[in-house]
Specification:
Elements (H helix, E strand, L loop, with lengths): L4 H6 L1 E5 L13 H4 L21 H10 L4 E7 L25 H11 L3 E7 L14 H6 L7 H20 L6 E5 L13 H11 L4 E2 L28 E2 L2 E2 L2 E6 L16 H12 L3 E7 L9 H17 L17 E6 L2 E6 L7 E3 L6 E6 L7 E3 L12 E4 L8 E6 L3
Parallel strand pairs: 1-2, 1-9, 2-3, 3-4, 4-5, 8-9
Antiparallel strand pairs: 6-7, 10-11, 11-16, 12-15, 13-16, 14-15
Helix pairs in contact: 3-4, 3-9, 6-7
Bound molecules: alpha-D-glucopyranose (GLC).
């Protein structure tokens, strides 16, 4: 038993990037990348009023899609708190909306039985105690202010206090996604790693904390889980030669935060294939949605969730509790495995028969999960050029995104 068991079992989670940046609708980096006059971005808080925010609806959609946990942006790099901070006024409870959305969000997702994760940004673009080459001033004007020692201390105190508040006032928190992936602080322990971690574990001993404090490369530390991003790795992930728990986070389109001109949504197959690809390498997929300023999921994100729900209803068993397989998958396929069951995900509709490497004499039966039909095993034809260990099968009805369940003989 390990505290990460539930996470490894779950395999699929929902990431939500939501904050003031939903109003300009150009993604969560707009504060740094676009030309804002001083105070202009911050004053968006006077307009933030997500009257359509209905986290129970989000939770139901996510649950049906097979997601077992959720990670919510309590604060992104713009410094705006989506929770009722005790330490700053730049927060959701001082907007026209007035309510602590983090609390509403936590309650709604818990009610659906989902595990709760918080995203919290390590950098704060609005704080004088933080600076690097990915700051708004550097990106826009190639300037970098000098950080005064007292501001630096205030900055680290604020970060620690915010994390402590999040760890103590919202019940049991299952996951903490501390975020920064910049190369620029990689040589120093800029965020006082051990102090933050001891605050976190003191209040939430079972929580899983991600690896993004480890951008301090001088001394690699063990983290509860590791976070590649916007990719599906080629193999189970290792750190210091040991396999680790990991999760890749990916967008549905090309932005994390809401962008009203981005309609470049990945097709369903990319999402189901990406999910199965992660499971096949012993990893998780954290799939992102950026709600708009009123608190709605974009229409296309809802559509994808609904399609995922339909896929998941038939194929969830190939995901939950499954992991990698030692068998080599056939052309355009990928395997997950759970005990004696191999799950073959088809990246495309087969040209015809499918040749399974290494499985001759090992198969008990094959089912097409979407329809429950049994799949033919071909032994009387087309075997001249096969390797002795290969098995030809005929999944006539299969299309891209289908999964064949291959029950292996138990001897
Ligand atoms: C990238 C983005 C950041 C986002 C993160 C999620 O690092 O720059 O805005 O929150 O990905 O992992």
């Amino acid at each position: 038993m390990s505290k990460a068991d539930w996470f490894v079992d779950a395999r699929f989670g929902l990431f939500i990037h939501w904050g003031l940046y939903a109003i300009p609708a150009k993604g969560e980096w707009t504060y740094a990348r676009d030309a804002w006059t001083p105070g202009e971005y911050e004053s968006l808080m006077n307009k933030f009023n997500p009257v359509d925010f209905d986290p129970a609806k989000w939770a139901k959609l996510a649950k049906a899609a097979g997601m077992k946990y959720v990670v919510f942006t309590t604060r992104h790099h713009d410094g705006f708190c989506m929770f009722d901070s005790h330490y700053v006024d730049y927060k959701i409870t001082n907007t026209p909306y007035g309510k602590d959305v983090t609390r509403l969000f936590v309650d709604a997702f818990r009610a659906e039985g989902m595990r709760i994760g918080f995203y919290h940004s390590l950098p704060d673009w609005t704080h004088p105690g933080w600076s690097d080459q990915e700051s708004p001033e550097y990106i826009q004007r190639k300037e970098m202010h000098e950080v005064k020692p007292e501001d630096r201390i205030a900055y680290l105190d604020l970060l620690n206090n915010h994390v402590e508040q999040l760890m103590t006032e919202y019940g049991k928190i299952d996951l903490l996604f501390l975020d920064y992936t910049s190369q620029y602080k990689a040589h120093e322990d800029y965020y006082d790693r051990e102090r933050l971690l001891s605050t976190i574990y003191k209040h939430q001993p079972d929580i899983l904390v991600d690896d993004r404090l480890s951008y301090y490369k001088e001394d690699v530390r063990d983290f509860d889980y590791y976070t590649p991003e916007i990719c599906v790795p080629n193999q189970p992930q290792k750190v210091k030669g040991k396999e680790v728990v990991w999760e890749t986070c990916c967008t549905m389109n090309d932005h994390w935060g809401y962008c009203n001109t981005d309609f470049n949504y990945k097709p369903l197959c990319t999402l189901t294939g990406g999910l199965m690809g992660c499971v096949a390498r012993n990893g998780n997929l954290l799939l992102n949605i950026g709600p708009d300023e009123k608190g709605n999921f974009p229409e296309m994100s809802i559509k994808r969730l609904e399609e995922l729900a339909e896929w998941y209803a038939a194929h969830g068993e190939a995901v939950v509790g499954a992991g990698n397989s030692a068998y080599t998958p056939p052309f355009a396929g990928c395997y997950t495995q759970k005990g004696n069951d191999l799950y073959l995900y088809l990246l495309q509709q087969p040209m015809g028969d499918v040749i399974l490497p290494e499985l001759k004499g090992k198969i008990e039966e094959i089912t097409l999960l979407r329809t429950g039909e049994s799949v033919g095993i071909v032994n009387d034809w087309g075997f001249e050029l096969l390797l002795e260990s290969e098995q030809r099968i005929r999944p006539s009805m299969a299309v891209a995104g289908d999964v064949l369940k291959i029950r292996l003989r138990s001897n």
